[in-house]
């Protein structure tokens, strides 16, 4: 018998595996750790490397690390949780369960923690689920400005007023407001999968209705199809933060949320880019009608394909939660939907975020909807440039979203990141205001990139801050109300902005918008940094340390 086999044989048969300490079955070939017992092992991260003190503090919470350091000073063994909230316990630390411990979470609920964090695990399939959602969100968002970005062509073909064309964009905001609460209730009750299937089915149905609008006297058919698609977005726009929380661990949840928002932004970007290239201002009704048919049929086929993919592959939730915070939220979940709404509206920090977030994104909606009008005021025959500038706004925002999500995961500085991004949005709006009429279209592209990077990049930051401020309330509900307020601000600011562009010049109209943004920045500053979800993760880690020590 080799020395290594002897060591393994000397280990008691029922010795707990490090994996079993967090509720995950032991991996094949797992070997109990043996050796000196005078000092605890460091935390083992992915790949077997050891975590330093700073890394432990950022991943597992200051309370748990402080407790572990005090235990090390007294020479007592302890196991620390990993980034997923599960413990990697040395074999010389007993993991026999002590009596059940009732521990109040940092939120208002009381959760039973039998032996530290509940069983938790992240699954590889989470990336497939996220990729499907990105495509799903994109298929709906691409139709948002499908008509308004080519408003002059649509007005000429259908013979309707430009306000009705702008209304095809605003209908997204109008329908969301009364439907946000039913959609949030449905997400809370039936889960991600059913909600996603309903959303993509409605998007496909609306896309096929628009196929029948290829005739100069059928604008009403196009509007009906657009309204069906707009109603379906209520089953999409609130999902990124919920999907991220259900499928991703605490060290990836902000990045996942930003990627979920990325799908919506990608759709908006394609909505700015494709219609001006597909439907050109030829002045020939037959050619315009043929171009519209290509656009409508392509979108209908794509959404139908996505419907099949979602039915076959999209899942509601993994077998085990990805983090202690998510597990605690599931255990404390109640059926009191309206009680949850009441608690959200009594949360001062969340209400301030509703207002500041609504202002920021509402300004972006106003600029996006009327971008064609704004650009053509200073640059004649620049329909394609208007589409490309809109694309620049959104692509920059996609980069901003991804970077902001990564920064949040690495720093956990939610309020600070929010303030910086909001302030930069204000600066970008000021620059955009005073360069739009410079006569050099390339400069407008550059300033649009700066504005989009921060203003659109703010989307996932607001979602994640809302989830932190309102934990353990369902993320879908908090995000739904957040988006409802955005639609209100979007409608008001879009209509006001359109009126101002007609009665005064665009410099003054844009100046009013960045003044409103300054008010939003002040409201953001007043939000208290009450990070409840982060506190719940740290709390679960601290409880686990205490229980392992008690069992030692």
Overview of the molecule:
- The chain is an all-alpha fold.
- It has two domains: 131 residues, no CATH class; 406 residues, Growth Hormone, Chain: A (Up-down Bundle).
- The protein has 21 helices and two strands.
- A hairpin with a 5-residue loop joins strand 1 and strand 2.
- The longest helix is centred in the middle third of the chain and has 50 residues.
- It is globular and about 85 Å long.
- It starts with a helix and ends with a helix.
- The N terminus is likely disordered.
Which tags fit this structure?
552 residues, mainly alpha, Growth Hormone, Chain: A, two-stranded antiparallel sheet, globular
The total tally of domains equals 2
Radius of gyration: 26 Å
Lateral arrangement of strands in the main beta sheet: 1-2
If you average the pLDDT, what whole number results?
77
Summarize it:
The chain has 552 residues and is mostly helical. Helix content is 68%, strand content 1%.
Q: Could you give the topology of this structure?
A:
Blueprint: H1 3-10, H2 53-60, H3 62-73, E1 101-104, E2 110-113, H4 126-141, H5 151-158, H6 162-211, H7 219-232, H8 239-247, H9 253-278, H10 285-313, H11 324-331, H12 337-345, H13 348-369, H14 371-378, H15 383-411, H16 414-433, H17 441-455, H18 458-470, H19 475-503, H20 506-525, H21 532-551
Antiparallel strand pairs: 1-2
